[in-house]
Structures are given as structure tokens and as C-alpha cells.
Automatic annotation (TrEMBL):
Domain of life: Bacteria
Similarity comment: family membership: Belongs to the LapB family.
Residue stretches making up the LapB rubredoxin metal binding domain: 354-378
Known function: Modulates cellular lipopolysaccharide (LPS) levels by regulating LpxC, which is involved in lipid A biosynthesis. May act by modulating the proteolytic activity of FtsH towards LpxC. May also coordinate assembly of proteins involved in LPS synthesis at the plasma membrane.
Magnesium keyword on record: no
Keyword Membrane: yes
Organism, as annotated: Deefgea tanakiae
SMART domains reported in the protein's UniProt record: TPR
Protein's name according to its UniProt entry: Lipopolysaccharide assembly protein B
């Protein structure tokens, strides 16, 4: 009898527990959420987190078909199609969402941006531009301008890129470096058309925007050299060092050429020798070595490399020394020296590449604008080193 009367005492804590839970969680909301977010949704999220895009997309397609009313799901699916490279499907999906009447203003802008990105990826820049211009006076204007800036850079529309970057600049990002580079691009185009004065004007605008723009100094030096103004050319090139001394490596060959034109090659060589004593950069060491070999002879060239190696022992330096040694070595030593030289060559290949500090792209050619990640001035101006290491 006693057991029958008091059995309910055992479940009292459960009721208390339920009361506590109900006070803290809106049960209706939980139920509604669990309906709008089926189990497959969480599975899809798990696939996404694991980087399994294709599995996630298959699940999303399934969910999106059953829940066509859910705009967020459809939008996510559109993005996933784009990531998988199915641009037509992404475009169709985003256009379909845009045709829905119940979209609020925020959602409309968001989907317009997504559609514009689809068009950019598909190379349909005109259509992307039209959408992005429509967003100019909305809350999404800044995001739209960033996409427009990307388009103008891809299309080499540098004047439009400058105007857009000027609108984008704020305390967080001045865009000085980029705008100066856009002016340099304009100047490069003017130089192709032999419009030297126009190019000079554009390079001065670059320097007005970003006083330490090494590329503008480099190009101004080249124009002065072409006009036969060798002192002015050297003056421009030496200004590069005021920004970042390592960029001088890009001008080293030009500097020597200008000194040669002035019949003062020895002065040019000693100027660059002082430079490599502080900055032992292989390209410049190579250059001086070549010049010494051609003008003064093997002994001076060999001695120069030996000095550099003593100042800064390095594998590429040793390789250079061996190359110099090979020229004067007796025949019976040459075979062994060549084997060692080849070994060193194979092991120092990384020293012959320029590296992008942003994306790690490596290349034999120096770029002001990385073809891998579209960043400006992300390459260290010397081979074998990342930007951060110089
Ligand atoms: Zn890069």
C-alpha cells in the first residue's frame, strides 16, 4: 500500500526538471527549428567542415528541394554550386531567389552580391558591373565597390580602379599603395605608346599618392635613361633605397648601365659593391661578378666573390665561388669541381625564385601584382626570400 501511495514521489524531480527547462528554453521555438533544420542539414554542415563539398552539395540539394521556402538554404546552395565551379547553376539559383517577392531589402542586396560574384567568376564582367552599380546607394555599397575594384583590376581599367579605391579608402585601409600601383600601370601603358611626358605625369601622381613607391622611382629612372639623362636616372634609382633598400636589387643592372654610359663603370661597380656588403643579394653579386670578369678579368672577379662569401657564408655564394674557380682551375680538377658545382646548383634552386608573401606563389619573374592572389607588392624584391624575411 505504502509503495502505491508514494510511487509518484520518484518522478517529482523529473517534473521540476521539466519546469526548469521550460523556463529557459522556448520549446515551440526548438520544435520549429528542428522542423526547419532537418537532420540532413547538420550532416551537410559536417561535410562542409570536413571540406567534403560534393557530399555537402548533394545533401543541400535534397534539403533545398524539400524546403524551397527557405531563402538561406537556397542561397547557401547557390554559393556551393559556385565553389564547385558550376557557375550556370549558381547563377540560375541566385536569379530564382531574386525573383521571389517575399525578399526583404537586406536579403535582396545579399543575393545581388552573390549573383555579381557568380558573373565575375564566369568572366561576365559587364553583367556583374550592372548589378554592383545598382548597389551603390545601399548598405551593401562598400562590398559592391570591393568587387568592382577587383573587376577593374582584372580588366586593366586603371582610372576606374583609382576612382573606386578613392571611394573605398578609410581609416582601416588607405589604398595608397594600390592607387600608386594603378598609376604605375597607367604609366606603363603610356610608355608602350611612347608617351613619355604622360607617363612621367602619371608616375608623379603615383608618388604624390605614395611617396615611397619604388616602382614609380624605378620607371622614372628608366624614362630619364631613355632620354640620355643618366645622372637624373641614377638619382631616381637611388631614391628606391629610401623606401626599402632591397628594391635596389631590381635597379642594379640599370644603375650599372647608366654609369657605363657616363664612362664611370668602376664607380658604379664600387657603389653596388658597397650595397652588397650590407645586402648580400645574389642577383647583384652575379651582376658585379659578370662586370668584373668582362672588364678587369678573372682574378678580380674571383677575389670579389671570395670576399662576399667570407662576409656572408651561404650556399649560393659558395656556388658562385666554385663557378669562378672553375674558370681558372687546372683541367684535372675541373671534373670534380663541376660535380660539386652541379650538386650545389640543384640544392640552391629555391634561391632563384621570387616568393609571394601572401599566397606562397613562386616564380622566376618578379611581379608587382601577384598572379596567384592579386595582392600588390607582395613579393620580396630579392630571390629566395619571403617578403617577411627581408
Ligand atoms: Zn600571391
Amino acid at each position: 500500500m505504502i509503495e502505491i501511495q508514494f510511487w509518484w514521489l520518484a518522478i517529482l524531480p523529473v517534473f521540476f526538471g521539466l519546469g526548469w527547462l521550460a523556463a529557459r528554453v522556448d520549446i515551440k521555438h526548438v520544435i520549429a527549428e528542428s522542423h526547419s533544420l532537418p537532420l540532413a542539414y547538420f550532416k551537410a554542415v559536417n561535410h562542409l567542415l570536413a571540406g567534403e563539398i560534393n557530399k555537402a552539395i548533394d545533401l543541400y540539394i535534397d534539403i533545398a528541394k524539400k524546403h524551397s521556402e527557405t531563402i538561406e538554404l537556397q542561397a547557401t546552395l547557390g554559393q556551393l554550386f559556385r565553389r564547385r565551379g558550376e557557375l550556370e547553376r549558381a547563377i540560375r539559383m541566385h536569379q530564382k531567389i531574386l525573383s521571389r517577392r517575399e525578399l526583404d531589402e537586406n536579403q535582396r542586396q545579399q543575393i545581388q552580391l552573390e549573383l555579381a560574384i557568380d558573373f565575375i567568376k564566369a568572366g561576365l564582367f559587364d553583367r556583374a558591373e550592372t548589378i554592383l552599380h545598382d548597389l551603390a546607394n545601399t548598405d551593401s555599397a562598400r562590398l559592391a565597390r570591393k568587387e568592382l575594384l577587383a573587376i577593374y583590376q582584372q580588366e586593366h581599367e586603371w582610372q576606374k580602379a583609382i576612382a573606386t579605391a578613392e571611394l573605398l579608402r578609410d581609416e582601416s585601409h588607405s589604398y595608397q599603395l594600390e592607387i600608386a600601383q594603378f598609376y604605375c600601370e597607367l604609366a606603363a601603358e603610356s610608355l608602350i605608346r611612347a608617351q613619355h611626358d604622360k607617363a612621367i605625369n602619371e608616375l608623379e601622381l603615383a608618388l604624390k599618392e605614395h611617396r615611397q613607391c619604388a616602382r614609380a622611382h624605378l620607371m622614372l629612372g628608366e624614362i630619364a635613361f631613355t632620354k640620355g639623362c643618366f645622372d637624373l636616372a641614377i638619382e631616381h634609382w637611388l631614391k628606391i633605397a629610401t623606401h626599402d633598400v632591397h628594391y635596389l636589387a631590381l635597379a642594379a643592372r640599370f644603375i650599372l648601365n647608366a654609369y657605363r654610359e657616363k664612362n664611370q663603370l668602376a664607380e658604379g661597380i664600387s657603389l653596388l659593391t658597397r650595397y652588397v656588403q650590407q645586402n648580400p643579394e645574389l642577383d647583384v653579386i652575379d651582376l658585379i661578378y659578370e662586370q668584373l670578369l668582362a672588364t678587369t678579368g678573372i682574378d678580380a672577379a674571383y677575389e670579389f666573390v671570395r670576399e662576399r662569401l667570407r662576409e656572408n657564408p651561404s650556399m649560393p655564394g659558395l656556388r658562385k665561388l666554385l663557378e669562378a674557380h672553375l674558370l681558372v682551375a687546372p683541367d684535372e680538377q675541373k671534373v670534380e669541381l663541376e660535380i660539386i658545382s652541379k650538386l650545389l646548383h640543384d640544392n640552391t634552386r629555391t634561391y632563384s625564385m621570387y616568393y609571394c608573401n601572401e599566397c606562397g606563389f613562386k616564380t622566376r619573374q618578379f611581379f608587382w601584382h601577384c598572379p596567384g592572389c592579386n595582392q600588390w607588392e607582395s613579393y620580396a624584391p630579392i630571390r629566395g626570400k619571403s617578403r617577411a624575411a627581408v
